[in-house]
Amino acid sequence: MYANGHIVTGLMEQLAPKKYAVENDRIGLQLGTLQKPVRKVLVTLDVTHEVVDEAIAAGADLIIAHHAIIFRPLAKLDTSTPAGSLYEKLIKNDIAVYISHTNLDVAEGGINDWLADAIGMERDGRASLEKVYEEQLYKLAVYVPEAQAEEVRQAMWAAGAGTIGAYDQCSFNVAGTGTFRPGAETNPFVGTAGRLETVDEVRVEMAVTESLLRKTVKAMLGAHPYEETAYDVTRLEREGKTLGLGRSGRLEQPVTLGELAERVKAAFDVPFVRLSGDPSSMVRKAAVLGGSGSRYWKPAQFTGAQVLITGDIDFHSAQDALAAGMLLIDTGHYAEKIMKQKVAQWLGEQLSSGKYTTETIVSAINTDPFRLA
After folding, report:
1. H-helix or E-strand spanning residue 157
2. Is 146 within 8 Å of 202 (Cβ atoms)?
């Protein structure tokens, strides 16, 4: 059974939720319809005429790309222009285009983590270079009989509540006395209708993120023995989980800048890189950012990184960084092609686990506009 377009893109939004995107970024469905079965998905960095021809030849119904094909509102659709003829070809062949851009950059397990993994950056202790998304934290408090408190705690933990930083199963518990009088039409777990009851209860409190709040409340109510459950939800002012662009962290083993450059070339499959700094300089902590990262050398240095690995570094930014003691490795923008294989593999696994026969394929087209001369 083929998955329809909404199922495929819904899976993509599990990997890279839209809420992670930088404001005004052009993401999501950009052309076509998702109201159809999808036999094949083509994953690419860019959508060019050559990529569309590849999709047609492969029988793909959906293209998932990193870079948008529509950047600003269209005043008209002139099919004699390069962009217009591209849209025309996609429409005539009923191929939809879905974009996952900065949300895939920001997401945990997305492009910047893939790049960090490729250069040998330790996973523990990674930090982003620029905060994009902060998840709101709430406190969920519920009153439960002492005998059932552990069951309710376990249900809340299983739903994802009670995690603070690197600690999980966090809770605060206060013993007290609950009173209530069941009404005539009730079927109370404790007590008798019409009679005031006194019960030894525990107030169980946990922190929970906004994305898991509804799930946690449902789990708590499912485990709670009372017909009418007393609980409250409070919005917290403390900072919750933050996600952002780029990654900074310690390398698994210290290397020289020259050695790291060779590692980057091999890991990112690029023919060359540009260095700024002494190739013999030792690097223990590095920062990486997919795409254009000229302006991120200062945030990278602030995290304690000795080198920033990114693309499209301009002359003056390199001069300023060098003067400040910051090393640079310019990979070019096309290093983001790492997303093609990674997204296709992840999406294929999800579709397979859902018993869908939709196939994911990796574009073989090199869309880098630059060539060595």
Report:
1. helix 149-158
2. yes
Question: Hey, what amino acid is at 173?
Answer: N
Band of the pLDDT at 166, cuts 50, 70, 90?
A: confident
Place of tokens 């310019």: 330
- Dihedral angle sign, alpha carbons of residues 251, 257, 259, 261: positive
HSE-up (13 A, CA, CB side) for residue 97: 27
Helix axes 111-118, 257-268, angle to 10 degrees: 120
Tokens of 76: 């008209």
Quick: pLDDT tens for 179-235: 999 998 899 998 888 999 999 999 999 999 998 999 999 999 999 999 999 999 999
Report the C-alpha gap between 341 and 364 in whole angstroms: 10
Smallest CA-to-CA distance from 234 within 198, 264, 202, 203 is with: 203
pTM (predicted TM-score): 0.85
The backbone torsions φ and ψ at residue 81, rounded to the nearest 5 degrees and listed phi first, read -90, 160
Name residue 12's beta-bridge partners: none
Which CA distances in Å does 346 have to 11, 12, 110, 121, 342? 10, 9, 10, 21, 6
| Domains of the chain, each with CATH number or no CATH | 3-101+337-362 (3.40.1390.30), 111-132+245-335 (3.40.1390.30), 136-235 (3.30.70.120)
275-300: pLDDT as tens digits: 999 999 999 999 999 999 999 999 99
Number of neighbouring beta carbons within 10 Å of residue 150: 14
Dihedral sign from CA coordinates of 344, 346, 352, 354: negative
Contacts of 135 (CB under 8 A, 6+ apart): 209, 210, 211, 240, 241, 242, 243
